[in-house]
Amino acid sequence: MAKTKTAKILQFRVIIEQDEDGLFVATCPAIPACHTQGDTYEEAEKNIKEVIKLCLEVAKDDEEYRASIDFGEEQTSRFIGIQEIFVPRPSFL
């Protein structure tokens, strides 16, 4: 979801995960087909910012694509975090 901070700034939530090959994969769920990767976390973060900008450029001229983006104007919640939780493996697995 995007959240308007000022008239000129949008805020999007991004998920960055490390895959089995060690690459960092970044996705912006609010924007269809908005994903990228990088060799480092910082590179993935830089790349996803560029991809978001490119997607918004496409949306400027494509009304159907623009309508598919969740700008989250009514979003009032604040993201806190995601934590991996480890539990003992059950005997049936």
From TrEMBL:
UniProt superkingdom = Bacteria
> Which InterPro entries does UniProt cross-reference here?
HicB-like, TA_system_antitoxin, TTHA1013/TTHA0281-like
Q: Residue ranges of the HicB-like antitoxin of toxin-antitoxin system domain?
A: 12-64
Give the residue spans that cross the bilayer.
none
> What name appears for this protein in its UniProt entry?
HicB-like antitoxin of toxin-antitoxin system domain-containing protein
What is the native source organism of this protein? Candidatus Gottesmanbacteria bacterium RIFCSPLOWO2_01_FULL_39_12b
